[in-house]
Amino acid sequence: MNDETPIPAVAVIGGGPAGLIAAERLSRDGIAVTVYDRMPTPGRKLLMAGRGGLNLTHSEPLEAFLGRYGAARPFLAPAIEAFPPAALRDWAEGLGQPTFVGSSGRVFPEAMKAAPLLRAWLARLRGQGVEFRQRTDWLGWDGSGRLLFRDAGGAEEAVDPAATVLALGGASWPRLGSTGAWVDILSRKGIAVAPLRPANCGFEVGWSEVFKQRFQGRPLKNLALTFDGRTVRGEAMVTAYGIEGGAIYALSSALRERIAAQGHAVLHIDLCPDRAADDIRQRLAKPRGKRSQSDFLRRALGLPPIAINLMREAVGPSLPREPAALAALVRAVPIELTAPAPLARAISSAGGIALAELDDTFMLKRLPGVFAAGEMLDWEAPTGGYLLQGSFATGVAAARGALAWLGR
What we know:
Strand order of the largest sheet: 17-16-13-14-15-12-18
Largest sheet: 7 strands, antiparallel
Radius of gyration: 24 Å
Structural class: alpha+beta
Strand content: 15-25%
Number of helices: 15
Distance between the termini: 30 Å
């Protein structure tokens, strides 16, 4: 331990969106804040999320928005209502990054990428006096109850802040910093932690070698996916291990739980969701002539080779010849999913600190003065801006709780 190191009023552990927004709110109120992070630079996962366009939040009405958080809604609603999508958009604009609403209702910075926003944000934080300690692992607490850290050189340091905000993320994309190592640390303190599981993930499918080699990396477009009575429109991608994509992610929670309970889940894919069932049957009832079945399906319904071969993967090389049966297959191709993709490949993670362990200020009841926020809490949401909105809102809520704890 280095006795010359100044002791921060608040230690924020984790340099992702939840930790950085907590640091911003605390430092804005004059609190000395040090952000500790194991990565060389802050916001690594935010940058990754922004590669295809940084989806900050969603523009749908708040009542529908809150419904996206499922069982965690009662706990998260006050935090999101206090820092709603409109507030997140105003915050981004305050950093010189105005936003727009895409055709799907998703909200993006006009620059689309995360890098300009992150640069402006870090400049603001440093301007407010926030100190950053990168390449620093949190080890838990020492025997005196002080936070214990280890730097890249192996030197350990103990600090005793007036309050702590934990924002270490889940365990998806661990190479970007979220390893889930905190689970054992908190479990040893008696904190209940639900097992971390993949969320917004792809799923394994036992494709034939021929199908896998021919179609991996190819998209399936304009689909309707149905599972357990819920239908989602969108696209999917065939992969070497199975299937992934936005429409899959939207159903991933229910699919994951069914696989956990029964060992598999059957997803039904409508290859022609914009055609009426009668229209499909009538088109397939026309004489095929000398055309192959694949050519017939392509001409009659506009099905690409990947869709026709997906049908064969489901029922075998011989597709139904009777028009009604073939039409029924086109509208509901059964695909058996056998396992979720590994957590390290998931967009986000489910599980985490049980919400019952937190009070309404986001403080851990068993650890007074220690607050938690972001993906390390036991909530999950689909892609579409809900993940980042939840992380930002809980980070703001944890900062507000720490300010109250400090008498501010």
